[in-house]
Amino acid sequence: MSVLLIAEHNNKEIKPFTLNAITAASQINDDLHVLVIGKNADPVAKSLSEVPNVKKVIHVDNDIYENYIAENYTPVILKHAENYSHIVCSANTFGKNLMPRIAALLDTSQVSDIIKVISEDTFLRPIYAGNAFATVKSTDKKKCVTIRPTSFDPAPTSGGSAEIVRGENTDPSQNTKFVKKEEIKSDRPELGTARIVISGGRGMQSGENFKLITAIADKLNAAIGASRAAVDAGYITNDHQVGQTGKVVVPDLYIAVGISGAIQHLAGMKESKVIVAINKDGEAPIFSVADYGLEADLFDALPKFLEELNKLNTIQK
């Protein structure tokens, strides 16, 4: 049977992790269909039809889907799920909110956060905060699977010619309604997809001190992250949290500043290509995964780092 992937988008553009999920889903079965639920999301449906891995795009269009609400998406997905052996989406905030509802209503065991497709019914996923890996085989007739997007390359966005068909609407939820959306506009790269990430931890001591990290991020065009300790202390908002209960990032360069390296944080960043740690505690666990470590007071190290970046920018100009 075919695979049904749930697209994440903003009614105008595909969210990047959908392309990673397409790569993973096409490894399960090459008969891949994508479900686009939205309002006036024709550009999204057209873009997905041009992805070579996609064989069909099902477009469900209605005013009630202008803003994503899991309670409204779920009945639509269930309505279209009958002819599919796998229901798939990304293991990000979107998927973690949506897929458990679908799995529960289909009475199936969800396979979460997979990092490798072994066969149509067997997958590899991390457990114990990434310190071990489990090979999971599902015998359910319908399989609900979430993909760790950073473990798969994004699918190409051109060269395909999938057909676009209209899907069926369902009634909106009577128990939940959209009230408002508050977004933080930023020129920085998105944390989950940034090539460079610089994160601060409890060692930053206050939210005000995060301006040291902000200044360096501006020079490197980097995203800003944080440990859970920094978030819990109120230094920075939780949308910056990297770790087991935050975002999983795999940048080319990850700079950890004042982060001790708790196992929960390491689970979210230790697959980064190059890891740099700055910490005054030479015994901090973060040094065990770092490619480069600097045992120093961050309040001395960061201004010097910024000074060197300014000199480099001056030379380049």
Any overview of this molecule?
The structure is a single chain. The protein is an alpha/beta fold. It has two domains: 2-166, Rossmann fold (3-Layer(aba) Sandwich); 191-316, Rossmann fold (3-Layer(aba) Sandwich). The chain has eight helices and 15 strands. The protein has helices at residues 16-28, 42-49, 70-80, 93-106, 211-220, 228-232, 263-266, 298-316, and strands spanning 2-6, 32-38, 54-61, 84-90, 111-114, 116-117, 122-127, 132-137, 143-147, 163-166, 196-200, 223-226, 253-257, 274-279, 292-295. The strands form three sheets. The protein has a seven-stranded parallel sheet, with helices on both faces. A five-stranded parallel sheet has the order 12-11-13-14-15. The chain has a three-stranded antiparallel sheet with strand order 6-7-8. β6 and β7 form a beta hairpin. α5 (211-220) runs parallel beside α8 (298-316). The longest helix is centred in the C-terminal third of the chain and has 19 residues, at 298-316. The protein is globular. The N and C termini lie far apart (58 Å). The mean pLDDT is 93.
CATH superfamily of the largest domain: HUPs
Low-pLDDT windows of residues: none
Number of domains: 2
Which word captures the global form?
A: globular
Indicate the CATH class of the largest domain.
Alpha Beta
The amount of beta strand, in percent, is 15-25%
Largest sheet: 7 strands, parallel
Fold-level CATH name of the largest domain: Rossmann fold
Q: Largest sheet, order of strands side by side? A: 5-9-4-1-2-3-10
Q: Element order, helices and strands?
A: EHEHEHEHEEEEEEEHEHEHEEH
Number of strands: 15
Radius of gyration: 21 Å
* SS summary, helix count: 8
CATH architecture descriptor of the largest domain = 3-Layer(aba) Sandwich
**Strand-pairing-aware structural class:** alpha/beta
Mean pLDDT: 93
Question: What share of the residues lie within helices?
Answer: 25-40%
Span between termini: 58 Å
